[in-house]
Amino acid sequence: MTSNSDKNDIPPLGFKGSDLPPYITSDPPKILIIGAGLSGLFLGNLLEKTNIPYEIFERAPSKSRPMGSVMCLSAGILPAIEQIGALDDLMKFSKPTRTFNLYTADMGTIAKLVADEVSVTGYDRVLFARSELYNLLLSRVPPKKIHLSKKLMSFQQNHQGVMARFSDGSTIHGDVLVGADGAHSAVRHHLFKTLKEQNKLPTNDMRSMNKGYMCFLGTTNPLDPVKFPDVDGEESCNAMNIGDKSSPYTWVMYSVPGNRLCWNVIIQLELAAVESEQFRNSEWAPESNKRILNSLRHFKTIYGTLGDIFDATNDEGVSRVFFEDMLYETWNHGRTVLIGDAAHKMLPSTGAGAINGMQDAVILANRLYDIQPTSFETIKAALSDYRDERFDNVKSQYSNTHMSARLQFGHTIHERIIRHVVFNWMPKWMQNRQVLKDNAFRPQVNFLPQVPPRGTGVIIPQRPSTRRPEGRRDQDKDNDKKEKEESGPCAVVL
């Protein structure tokens, strides 16, 4: 039975009791996932490996995604991808990245970074076009479990269940509602509105997201390796140009399979007040993007000019986004939980956003698997445990993205000095320690066979399953040995 305080804690539902699940059942909880982005699809992939029923609801009318920007995954999530049998498919459209070249606007060398991560983590850092991972995860979810044109309007929850209502008038009942619907999450908006009305929303969660940078991004069509050397190499060819103080831009490109380049052009808004106002107010359409990008065509790159890259990119494949960031304190309440950008929007300076969203999915899947029996109390406890297990690690990564953004995209005098020191004076051993620290959290799915630890670094133990408590004993023993060998300071690097 549920206490009166619990009943008052969750607003009453407005649907018939005959449609509701029982208060307590031995059946696994039914999961309603709002949002078919990477976090939502990865959670679906994980739940597909167990007997937990789920459905995914996406506001977009189609499953297609533009090519978009490059993505980078590392040892922090690759073991979980290996567990579900998707690593080999991922590697077919990926390239390892082991070097990174930084240049001035006039092609003067700032630094050349070499990071052989596979020797310390057991995995290469791999690059690919974001849409290809999306298509891979989508292909592994049964079509009948994904519902399109489902824009969430509201939801209600209490000790009996949760009901989601969509813009087409339809409703769906379940046991757990997962907000995986991105930075401007409708689930979070409705949850926070309710909590604010009840004076239960922390003050920090009432703030707006920060907007420090704006980015144009795209992926070229296949390129001629003669005109674009190394675009067909086995490793990704990476280059970043950082503009001078009169031109607060950073432009980056990465080669991906198919002889293509993923590219970004980033502007620091605080140093371009007039231009940022233009960017904010101009129409977000291909014609508007092209007009602004035309003013940047003369910028130099290792392949000629940005104009050469733009000409090889279809206009409709160019996107414009703000680099926003926000770490929310409230991730769960009652039967509702947030994952990915809905809970923590990070700057994309380290690739941590996608990795952390997928790590959320792993830990949440573990906690959902442990729910026995299915009741309001066990669900609340599971969602709270998920947040507790993830928050400190996400908070650390969130701070790292700010430092990395200043190193890569910053144009103030202070940021230029920091960049010079970090990229030119930091010893190799300190860089390796940071790599180990960044990849120490490598969650795996408790209900699937474990991938053996790789590399030389300590792996942070995760909470074992209450249904399979033996899950990580071998890894913990291995960590005890490695911890004795690990000591010393860590510094944030690119």
UniProtKB/TrEMBL annotation:
Highest taxon above the source species = Eukaryota
Disordered as annotated region, ranges: 452-494
Q: What range(s) does the FAD-binding domain occupy?
A: 31-201, 317-369
UniProt-listed SUPFAM superfamilies? FAD/NAD(P)-binding domain (SSF51905)
Question: Which Pfam family is an annotated match for this chain, by its short name?
Answer: FAD_binding_3
Instruction: Supply the Gene3D superfamilies for this chain.
Output: FAD/NAD(P)-binding domain
Q: Which InterPro entries match?
A: FAD-bd (IPR002938), FAD/NAD-bd_sf (IPR036188), FAD_mOase_fung (IPR050562)
Q: Where does the record place Basic and acidic residues bias? A: 467-487
Q: In Gene Ontology terms, what is one molecular function of this protein?
A: FAD binding
The UniProt keyword set, sorted, is: FAD, Flavoprotein, Oxidoreductase
Similarity-based family: Belongs to the paxM FAD-dependent monooxygenase family.
What protein name applies here?
FAD/NAD(P)-binding domain-containing protein
